[in-house]
Amino acid sequence: MSVSMGDNNGVNGDLNANSRCQSTGDPQLDKAVHQWLTWDKNWRTRAQVESLVAAGRLEDLRKRLCSRMSFGTAGLRAPMGAGFNRINDLTVIQSTQGLYSYLCRYFADFSSRGVVVGFDTRGQEDSGCSSHRLAKLTAAVMLSRDVPVHLFSTFVPTPYVPYAVKKLDAAAGVMITASHNPKEDNGYKVYWCNGAQISSPHDKQILQNIEEQLEPWSASCWDEELVESSSLRTDPLTQINSCYMEELSSLCFHRDLNRSCPLKFVHSSFHGVGHVFVQQAFHVFGLPPPIPVPEQKDPDPNFSSVRCPNPEEGESVLELSLRLAERENARIVLATDPDADRLAVAEKSDRCGWKVFTGNELAALLGWWMFFNWKEAHPDPADTQKVYMMATTVSSKILQAFARIEGFHFEETLPGFKWIGNRIHELTKTGNSVIFAFEESIGFLCGSMVPEKDGVSSAVVVAEMAAYLHNKNLSLKQQLHNIYQTYGHHVSKTSYVVCNDPPTIQKIFSRIRNFDGEASYPKTCGGIPIVHIRDVTTGYDSSRPDLRSVLPVTRSSHMITFTLQNGVVATLRTSGTEPKIKYYTEYCAAPGNSEASSLEEELRKTTAALLDEFLEPERNNLIRRCV
Predict the structure, then answer these.
(1) I need a surface site. Which of 203, 310, 444, 507 has the fewest CB within 10 A?
(2) What distance in Å separates the CA atoms of residue 379 and residue 317, rounded to the nearest whole number?
(3) At residue 262, what are phi and psi to the nearest 5 degrees?
(4) Which of 251-255, 361-365, 507-511, 551-555 has the lowest mean pLDDT?
């Protein structure tokens, strides 16, 4: 959806507005206001700043104008609206200018390789921002400097951008999306030439380049129509969609069985991009098309039918899908998030309602499935030496248990798929094969056709797995139990608390690092001794002989992992995209230990102690997650 900005697209508004703007009484803020009103050509966002000045809302103005966005785990992400620390026309133009300057210095052949630009279905009428418009402005900046731009003509899943970057040998890619964030947000996600999200040092250097030239270069940067008139703009949609679907068929292992599949599937695209692409993927696999949730099938930037557009929230946001599945007698519900890079799955239980799988449980199933089919095609045990699976460090250790028994390699990365994507690139260069990777926040990658989590391919792979298991008289839940019997029960809990006050977050983590005196971490949790502590923010790891963490140090966010004597591993970390402290706990049992209920009770007690002792939710006014 493209939000209209009126006939003049906000470019020909009253450009003398800044001269009439009253003083705030704060010289530094006056300077920021003047700068904004001088540079911004979108009359809606200029009007937002003017009305804040007129209303004397200085604190709001300072928040918007006196700081800038920085690259988190998912690129630049912020609310839409006026301000240097928000997503809007001006900050997207500034970001693209900085990206252009950096790519010019880095790639000698940048002017022939160009960039890929994609967008989702978000939009906000108040600020005249839509993902489509911001994508066209991104393209305009590049085109104004004679750089070829492969701009998709319609919304696409996020994985299509990195896929296109690799396929077209582009220098970089930009996806305008805020994924599953609230409707107020949008984002600017940058992919490197290897198809992985940018990581250090590129992210810091691009930010530096952005800050060196904040003033828009020319009127062309604001010219949406440049994408229609420039011969340097191409639309990669048909080629990329065709190549993607063709390559996707390499993940289809049982096409003959699929054709006679008696299972019914329901799919929700959460008002986002997924519907058309998931339908096509099912056709490629020869599976019956999933029944779309009619209220959520078409793009809607207001996400009208859900309280939050994140399928990770579980049953509470899957209500319409589950209701439709009941009516249609469908056993499996698949839900892709608004930009279709994540996947939630629920299965009808014979006796008691629906089982909504966690990201860790789905990873156990998908990891088993990918290795099971890989082994069928590679009976020689020596071949496993070149096989890898990967997960982020806050995700379940179930793949590690697989690797230990099956003989392939398993690696962990920092949270965020950018770390997995870059590592996949390195491993593939040396002749290795990454057959599955995941992060617990329902982000999965089956195979390695794109170095990014992919809800479209994951959805159809889950559907084929469910059809195969159904043919063996097994449900997904029963197969998950079988996996735990073979590889050991892995019980995990993932949740979060909301903290809207950054100084409180700093105080909480500072207290943990000085719990028993200066530079002394906690020694117990719920009375259970803590045997190891790893603090990725400071680079400390008590389990290493040199006390140094193997994972890269990330000082810009907090992440501390505790290993307890009872076998529980618990991690506290700040979110890279939202005002949250996330917590992850897991109990890993040995194979054959099927006492799931006692494991779950032990984990529940340890998790409660972790929250109460280390985060102190009541004292710190933290808002617990509502399920």
Answers:
(1) 507
(2) 43
(3) -85, -10
(4) 551-555
* Residues in a beta bridge with 530: 564
- Residue 465 has phi, psi (to 5 degrees) of -60, -45
Digit-coded pLDDT (tens) for 433-485: 999 999 999 999 999 999 999 999 999 999 999 999 999 999 999 999 999 99
Quick one: which of 563, 495, 497 has its CA closest to 531? 563
What is the arrangement of strands in the sheet containing 433-439, beginning at the earlier edge strand? 409-413, 387-392, 433-439, 443-446
Q: Which residues are catalytic?
A: 179
Q: Which burial class, exposed, middle or buried, applies to 461 when counting CB atoms under 10 A from its CB (0-12, 13-18, 19+)?
A: buried
Query: Are 592 and 585 within 8 A, CB to CB?
Result: no
CA 489 to chain centre: 27
Q: How many CB atoms lie within 10 A of CB 537?
A: 18
Q: What are 569-592's pLDDT values in tens digits?
A: 999 999 877 789 999 999 988 887
Question: Which tens digits make up the pLDDT trace of 332-381?
Answer: 999 999 999 999 999 998 777 999 999 999 999 999 999 999 999 999 98
Task: Give the residue carrying structure tokens 């928000």.
Answer: 86
**Entry pTM:** 0.92
DSSP string, 126-145: GGTEEHHHHHHHHHHHHHHT
Q: What CA–CA distance (Å, rounded) separates 616 from 611?
A: 6
Q: Cα separation of 283 and 242, whole Å?
A: 13
- Contact criterion met (CB below 8 Å) for 196 and 422: yes
